Amino acid sequence: MSILILGAGIVGVSTAVHLQQRGQDVVLVDCQAPGMGASFGNAGMIHGEAVFPLPFPRKLHELLEFGLNRTPALHYHLRALPSLAPFLARYWWHSAPARHRIIADAYAALTMRARQAHLDLASAAAAGDLILEGGCYTIYRTQRGAHAAHAEAEQAAAHFDIPYEALDRDAYQRREPHIRDVQGAIHWQDSLTVSDPYKVVQAYYELFRHRGGTYIQGRAEEIRAVKNGWQIASADGPVNAEKLVIALGAQSGQFSRMLGYRFPLQPKRGYHLHYTPDTDVQLNHTIIDRENGFSLAPMRQGIRLTTGIEFARHDAGPSPVQIIRAEKSAREIFALGTAEQAAPWMGARPCLPDMLPVIGPAPDRDNLWFAFGHGHQGFTMGPVTGQLIAEMITGEKPVVDPSPYRPERFPV
Questions:
Q1: How far is residue 6's CA from residue 252's CA, in Å, rounded to a whole number?
Q2: How far from 286 is each of 262, 299, 306, 383, 388, CA to CA, in Å?
Q3: Residue whose C-alpha is closest to residue 378's, from 250, 240, 235, 215
Q4: How confident is the model at residue 412 (pLDDT cuts 50, 70, 90)?
Q5: What is the mean pLDDT of the chain?
Q6: What proportion of the chain, given as a percentage, has pLDDT over 70?
Q7: Each residue of 395-410: b (16+ CB within 10 Å) or e?
Q8: For the chain, percent helix, then strand, then coil, each to nearest 5?
Q9: Dihedral, 282, 283, 289, 294 alpha carbons, nearest 10
Q10: Can you tell me the mean pLDDT for 101-125?
Q11: Judging by beta carbons within 10 Å of its beta carbon (0-12, 13-18, 19+), is residue 279 exposed, middle or buried?
């Protein structure tokens, strides 16, 4: 079977490898080099602990903070609100506690298998040195933050048996001597981190290429339906395939509309910037500050500061608000040092209002498949998504029940 995959990020590359392992003839297509989209700029975490998707705020004080547009965890452009309103309303509806709890079961089915799926690909790609054990830490600075962090940990352990360790101020200080003014932390012991997300995707891509896979630099708009499947132009002439997989991340909604499918996909923008601390300052582990909407991760390029969420129109340029707020907050607890980039990198997380990805076949075509909408966990879920969709395409028993991710849950 011949298959075209649109999108060479972590989801597309992982899908290509898994289909290739099952004897399929795979061509990977992207308008830029593999791994250069959101896979390039994420926080570098493989979240074993992320069993509850990020809900829309429902408490009054949270709604007020977000509504006033002052929190570092979220920033929105006023001009974007009219077009965002339907998405936000549906997101709020799905975030009701009872609905969110049901969604979490389907979400956790993927994240709880993400660790092993990554380790298997990294082993095959000889990239194990890029993936780091030791977990990550959710820190808190206030009593309210402590309550939220401990509640999350207790729920994750109770519902999904996720291991964690609660650390008070002194215990955490011993692990991170250069972090200050932190009241405590939750250590997520099974999570993995990486020293360079882009290098990880590159390693998986090189595995695909070494095994005979084909990559074409081309635009999604150049794909067209033909009699027996799909076709795209290449430097060596037209390339035909029986099936097409859309794994374009935040661009998937726009391309799907060209084919007649309307998914309510909304990009959540995020930024990162690298810093070089003084030689005597060190960060030993990745930390997440949920109260202030950022993460800090020691990476090959330096300490990566990654921001929270920004909602903006599709045509809006980068905004400095998120990175300015995050940097100010991060410097309160860690001596970041000097920024290594003149301007922050910006990417987009592809989010759907029910917080679950779309994984599966088009409801009215047997030669079109979707694999996108992973929100904040695309890097985490990429390999297990690739495994799942490859199993579905080739008729194997799927690693998890795919029905919660079916495309037809939306009126396409």
A1: 9
A2: 37, 9, 11, 21, 29
A3: 250
A4: low
A5: 94
A6: 100
A7: eeebbbebebbebebb
A8: 40, 25, 35
A9: 90
A10: 97
A11: exposed
Integer Cα distance of 305 and 323 in angstroms: 8
Q: Residues 381-408: pLDDT tens digits?
A: 999 999 999 999 999 999 999 999 999 9
Please give the average per-residue pLDDT across 317-323, as a whole number.
92
Q: Give residue-wise pLDDT tens across range 54-83.
A: 999 888 877 888 888 888 788 999 999 999
**CA–CA gap between residue 215 and residue 329 (Å, rounded):** 42
Report the largest interatomic distance among the alpha carbons of the chain, rounded to a whole angstrom: 67
SS3 letters for 219-275? CHHHCEEECCEEEECCCCCCEEECEEEECCHHHHHHHHHHCCCCCCCEEEEEEEEEE
Provide CB contacts within 8 A for 205, sequence distance 6+: 8, 13, 28, 34, 35, 215
Q: Which of 43-47, 57-61, 302-306 has the lowest mean pLDDT?
A: 57-61
Share of the chain above pLDDT 90, in %: 86
Query: 76 pairs with which residues across the strands?
Result: 311
- State the DSSP string of 344-376: -EEEEEEE-TTS--EEEE-TT-SSEEEEE--GG
The residue count of the chain comes to 412
Contact 206, 125 (CB under 8 A): yes
Record the tokens describing residue 349, joined without a space: 């997380």
Whose tokens are 């979400």? That residue is 107
Q: Where does residue 212 fall: left (phi above 0), alpha (psi -120 to 50 degrees), or beta otherwise? A: left
Collect all residues with Cβ–Cβ distance below 8 Å to 231 and sequence separation of at least 6: 223, 224, 225, 238, 239, 240, 241
